[in-house]
Design a protein that fits this description.
The protein is an alpha/beta fold. The chain folds into two domains: 100 residues, no CATH class; 199 residues, Uracil-DNA Glycosylase, subunit E (3-Layer(aba) Sandwich), CATH 3.40.470.10. The protein is 41% helix and 9% strand. Helix 3 runs antiparallel to helix 4. The longest helix has 18 residues. Bound molecules: uracil (URA) (2 copies).
């Protein structure tokens, strides 16, 4: 099949998923299609075929590298990629390019399909994970006994009571712009609690967490470790949507996090999975980047806590699906090895 057709399909797939940016530093899908000639009718250049193979083949991770190979100027150099000065690979002769069967279009699948052999770091993680839950210990937040929330929220005795309080909450200004509160939903006796950042538009409309595109991916991620949404509890740090999905403000987090803390205290899950930088940094009270928080088993008031990428980030960057898969498998192993309750 024509390389441009493959590329166009891939971009269309991204666009269907609601992406307009593709982590391309300002270029959007339409720009890329135009730059690559994917909307024109002339034959694709060798460079474009080459980059399509790279996108779909061994190094699908970095669009910028592939675009640079296709001759597109990309502003920000990608560390460790050919964007920084280094030998440029010689494109294969046109003949070879033409006879090479088209590589498959990257598919949105979870769990991710197996790829090339693990890197050193992945291999270490994989080995650590295989020995029970022997991933290195991470941050410890308070002890099991510490009193978590002084005051009224700490006295709420059920998830329903928390939801009621959230509904009437005016501790920050978000209630004024939101349509519905999104306290969280799922099994009150869940072994796993999934924590995201804040409700988005769909969640705000319905009052239910993680039901938009990112939420559908979260459902798949859970399915990949044999869990349904009904088995777990799903919630966010913020219970009301920030206008336009802007980042939560520190005072909003401070006002809202007692609800999350009390939810965790009541549910007492066997593992918490923090999806995304925001949930991870809030729960672990740190500014450490997500990349450094992953792969460790943190302790949140005695409850193991695993950090992974936010599903919305995975939609933008499919290269993160493999590490996410490793992270949720780690969470699954923690579940499987904790005593029955
Ligand atoms: N979309 C998926 O369906 N899975 C991933 O892992 C990433 C994006
Ligand atoms: N993103 C989140 O962090 N939470 C949701 O509920 C939906 C999208």
């Amino acid at each position: 099949m024509d390389a441009r057709v493959l590329l166009r399909r891939y971009l269309e797939q991204r666009r269907e998923l609601g992406e307009s940016e593709l982590v391309l530093d300002g270029l959007n899908v339409e720009d890329v299609m135009r730059l690559l000639g994917a909307t024109g009718s002339s034959a694709p250049s060798t460079e474009v075929r080459q980059s399509v193979r790279q996108l779909a083949g061994e190094q699908p991770d970095d669009w910028r590298t592939a675009l640079q190979d296709a001759g597109v100027v990309v502003d920000t150099p990608v560390p460790g990629s050919r964007a920084v000065p280094g030998p440029r690979p010689v494109p294969p002769p046109a003949e070879t390019a033409r006879t090479t069967p088209p590589a498959p279009i990257p598919r949105m699948a979870f769990p991710p399909e197996p790829t090339s052999p693990a890197t050193g770091a992945e291999a270490t993680n994989e080995m650590a994970a295989r020995k029970e839950i022997a991933a290195p210990r991470g941050i410890v937040i308070a002890s099991e006994e510490a009193e978590l929330i002084p005051g009224a929220i700490g006295k709420l005795e059920s998830l329903e009571e928390i939801a009621e309080k959230v509904k009437a909450c005016t501790r920050c200004s978000l209630h004024a712009t939101a349509i519905n509160p999104v306290p969280g939903e799922g099994n009150p006796n869940a072994d796993m609690v999934c924590v995201g950042e804040a409700p988005g538009a769909k969640e705000d409309e319905t009052g239910r967490p993680f039901i938009g595109q990112a939420g559908q991916l979260l459902t798949k991620i859970l399915a990949a470790i044999d869990l349904t949404r009904e088995q777990v509890f799903i919630c966010n740090v913020l219970k009301h949507r920030p206008p336009g999905n802007r980042n939560p403000l520190p005072e909003e987090v401070e006002a809202c996090s007692p609800y999350l803390i009390r939810q965790l205290e009541l549910i007492k899950p066997k593992v918490i999975v923090a999806f995304g930088t925001f949930a991870a940094q809030t729960l672990l009270n740190t500014k450490t980047p997500l990349g450094q928080l992953r792969g460790l088993v943190h302790q949140y008031h005695g409850i193991p806590l695993v950090v992974t990428y936010h599903p919305a980030a995975l939609l933008r960057n499919p290269a993160w699906k493999r590490p996410t898969w490793e992270d949720v498998k780690l969470a699954r192993r923690i579940l499987d090895s904790s005593p029955r309750s």
